[in-house]
Amino acid sequence: MDRILEPEVMDTWEESIAYDAMDFTEVNTAFANDAIALAPTQPILVLDAGTGPGRIPTIMAQLRPQWQFIGVDLAASMLQIAQQQVEQVNLQEQIRFELVDVKNLPYEDGQFDLVVSNSLVHHLAEPLPFFQEIKRILKPHGGILIRDLFRPANIETLNALVDSITKDCDARQKKLFGDSLQAALTIDEVRNLIEQAGLKNIDVYQNSDRHWTAKRSWGAST
Fold this sequence. Notes:
The protein is α/β, with parallel strands linked by helices. It has 8 helices and 7 strands.
């Protein structure tokens, strides 16, 4: 099935509210737990690329209060939601959000100990610059956890996934999920991009009926 792109930035207030209203608690918590397992408990700096409403750094920060987080996104409305919910749980000293393009990060080479990103790559028409930026801004021993949807082989599989996953969602939320599946990459496409970016020792695998994961533990070389 061919890839059909969706808008890179989800930046209407209605879209952001609809997205944040979807219950990703289980998925986000699993991601956060997987991410903290990749790095030491000592103080580190973490980048969350495509942070959206900021749910993942919020969970991680509560599990690792000694870590510092920067969450970046190009959607101002998403970052507004993120800032509000971080302030509600008094984590604004540990997490900050910035309006930043992940394909052109304004950070120094080797600045971060860990880069995490959930459900971002399918939004990018050209994902290679993002992977190249990850390599640049990570410390030589930095950890990586990237997770996203993968594109189903055909429209029948896509529709079946939408029906099974979004039973309790409204029409707008169902469409958002279906569009995201069709905009996603295949796992082979992800592997090729990681190789082109020059990232080393990355384990890329399917971890659910709809998700791929790319990960590297802190301490591995780039």
